[in-house]
Amino acid sequence: MTGLPSPLGFAPTWDAPARVRALITTRAGGVSRGAYADANGGGGLNLGAATDDAPGDVAENRRRLAAALPQPPRWMRLVHGNAVADAEAVDAMASTPTIVADAATSMTPGVVCCVTMADCLPVLLASRRGDAVGVAHAGWRGLAGGVIQATVRQLRRRLRDPGAEIVACLGPAIGPAHFEVGQEVFDAMQQTLPDAAAAFATGADGRLRADLFVLARQALAQVGVASVRGGGECTYANPWRYYSHRRDRVTGRHAALVWIDAPT
C-alpha cells in the first residue's frame, strides 16, 4: 500500500527504511460515543476491546483500521509485562486475544505488529535493513521489567545478528509534567536503569514525577540503540488528540502499529 488515510492517525517521522511503515492512531475517525468520542463530540476511534465502550463500536473502529492496513493488526492481551511475541504466531482473526504479551516483532511483510495504549509509551522499532520490525508497550511497569530491551534482543535473535543496528521511535505518552508516581516507581526503575534518577523530579507540590521518554532512551541505550526519534508529545495535555487514562479515567485506547511493506 502506498498511503494511509489521515483521519485514522499519523505516520511518525523516524530513521526507518522506506519499506517499514508505521501508524499511530488518534481519538478521531471512528464511531465511539460518550467518553470515547473525539474531542469535538464526533465519533471516536477507541480501539480498546477491554474498555466499557459499546462492543459494536469498538468492532467497527477496528474494522476501519484493518481496512487501511495490509492485514488486520495482531491484537494481544497486554498486562504491563515484558513478554515479546512473534506477531506471525498471533491469530489476526481471533475475536479475543489468545497471546499475552506487551511487545511483538515480525519479519514477514504485511504482518502488522500492534499495541494499544492510553498514556503508556509505544516504542516502534525496526532493523536498519528493514527486514524486521517490532513495537513495545512501555508503561512504568514494562519499563522497569525491561520490555524495551527484551524487544530489541528478540529482533536481533530473529535476525540471527547480535549486532544488528536497530532504530527506534517514541510515540505519544503521558509527559513528565503530569505523570505523578510513588517511591516504588523510582525504586523499581533503579533496579533496571542505573541512571534512572535523571528521569525523576520533585515538583513544588512535593510530588514525584517521572519522564517516560528519558527512561525509554536509557533502556534503548542499554541495548545499543542510538537512533531514537520522537518523544515529548503528552497524551494527558492533548485531550483534543489523545485518550488519557490518568486525565479521564474512563477513556479509550489508541494503537501503535508497525509492519514491513509487502512487495507490489
Describe this structure in words.
β7 and β8 (133-138) form a beta hairpin. Helices cover 22% and strands 23% of the residues. The protein has helices at residues 55-67, 140-145, 147-159, 183-192, 212-222, 245-248, and strands at residues 9-10, 20-25, 28-32, 84-86, 103-106, 113-117, 121-127, 133-138, 166-170, 180-181, 200-202, 208-210, 227-230, 254-260. Strands 4-5-8-7-9-13 form a six-stranded mixed beta sheet. A four-stranded antiparallel beta sheet has the order 1-2-14-6, with no helix packed on it. It is of the alpha+beta class. The chain is built from six helices and 14 strands. It has one domain (11-260): CNF1/YfiH-like putative cysteine hydrolases, CATH 3.60.140.
Mean pLDDT: 95
Main β sheet profile: 6 strands, mixed
Shape: globular
* Tally of separate domains: 1
CATH classification, class level: Alpha Beta
Percent helix:
10-25%
DSSP strand (E) fraction?
15-25%
Question: In whole angstroms, how far apart are the ends?
Answer: 8 Å
Q: Would you list the SSEs in sequence order as H and E?
A: EEEHEEEEEHHEEHEEHEHE
The parts where pLDDT drops under 50 for at least 5 residues are none
Estimated radius of gyration:
17 Å
Instruction: List how many beta strands DSSP finds.
Output: 14
CATH superfamily: CNF1/YfiH-like putative cysteine hydrolases
Sheet/helix structural class: alpha+beta
